[in-house]
Amino acid sequence: MTDDVRDAAFYGRRKGKALRAGQADLIAGLLPTLALPLDRPAPEALADLFPHVPAEIRLEIGFGGGEHLVHRAGESPDVGFVGVEPFVNGMAKALAAVRARDLANVRVSDADAVKVLDWLPAASLDRVVLLYPDPWPKKRHFKRRFVGPDNLDRFARVLKPGGAFHFASDIDSYVDWTLFHVRRHPAFRWTATRPDDWRAPWAGWPGTRYEAKALREGRRGNYLSFERA
């Protein structure tokens, strides 16, 4: 895998409206407790990040306000969840939900997801999830789309054989882009066998606020699943 050289991040702004006092307290107090220790080498066993030994470990990149991450963590307490979100306001919202539900199986990072992927041990994840990422629709911004050969190499490195990459988007051009790149990558296999396999969300799908916005604006989500060879 070669280093990813780019002049801009895959995400947009890092902060929106000023945080309320309670949100600022979560960023100052709870975030350091749950944050991945990127300033030192990753543990040989990623399970050591959690108070129990997880049955599996999943990574969600760009979790927004944490709706999907928190829902999945609540329904599967035996699974370890790692969430990455550089947007401070989204992180504050997710931390509030993690605290309210007293979830012990969530770890987070506000760093660039590329840095997290490069930090993680090889073959340490059972699933990578990328839901409604910024589509960067202008051609000159295509290089900022998260799905590409370099990051697929990263996914291939951190996923266990038989692990999954889940991708959702309401932007047809990004769906086509993702299919093109992932199907060309030797480490991944698209698992769809019929149209409903990419038109219907995964089992237990709670929805996200980005999906809800797309539906209000007349766009339908697409849900792609790929297997790590």
Automatic annotation (TrEMBL):
<comment type="pathway">
    <text>tRNA modification; N(7)-methylguanine-tRNA biosynthesis.</text>
</comment>
<keyword id="KW-0949">S-adenosyl-L-methionine</keyword>
<comment type="similarity">
    <text>Belongs to the class I-like SAM-binding methyltransferase superfamily. TrmB family.</text>
</comment>
<feature type="binding site">
    <location>
        <position position="85"/>
    </location>
    <ligand>
        <name>S-adenosyl-L-methionine</name>
    </ligand>
</feature>
<dbReference type="Pfam" id="PF02390">
    <property type="entry name" value="Methyltransf_4"/>
</dbReference>
<dbReference type="InterPro" id="IPR003358">
    <property type="entry name" value="tRNA_(Gua-N-7)_MeTrfase_Trmb"/>
</dbReference>
<protein>
    <recommendedName>
        <fullName>tRNA (guanine-N(7)-)-methyltransferase</fullName>
        <ecNumber>2.1.1.33</ecNumber>
    </recommendedName>
</protein>
<feature type="binding site">
    <location>
        <position position="112"/>
    </location>
    <ligand>
        <name>S-adenosyl-L-methionine</name>
    </ligand>
</feature>
<comment type="function">
    <text>Catalyzes the formation of N(7)-methylguanine at position 46 (m7G46) in tRNA.</text>
</comment>
<dbReference type="GO" id="GO:0008176">
    <property type="term" value="F:tRNA (guanine(46)-N7)-methyltransferase activity"/>
</dbReference>
<feature type="binding site">
    <location>
        <begin position="208"/>
        <end position="211"/>
    </location>
    <ligand>
        <name>substrate</name>
    </ligand>
</feature>
<keyword id="KW-0819">tRNA processing</keyword>
<feature type="binding site">
    <location>
        <position position="138"/>
    </location>
    <ligand>
        <name>substrate</name>
    </ligand>
</feature>
<dbReference type="InterPro" id="IPR055361">
    <property type="entry name" value="tRNA_methyltr_TrmB_bact"/>
</dbReference>
<feature type="binding site">
    <location>
        <position position="134"/>
    </location>
    <ligand>
        <name>S-adenosyl-L-methionine</name>
    </ligand>
</feature>
<keyword id="KW-0808">Transferase</keyword>
<feature type="binding site">
    <location>
        <position position="60"/>
    </location>
    <ligand>
        <name>S-adenosyl-L-methionine</name>
    </ligand>
</feature>
<dbReference type="GO" id="GO:0043527">
    <property type="term" value="C:tRNA methyltransferase complex"/>
</dbReference>
<dbReference type="InterPro" id="IPR029063">
    <property type="entry name" value="SAM-dependent_MTases_sf"/>
</dbReference>
<keyword id="KW-0489">Methyltransferase</keyword>
<feature type="binding site">
    <location>
        <position position="170"/>
    </location>
    <ligand>
        <name>substrate</name>
    </ligand>
</feature>
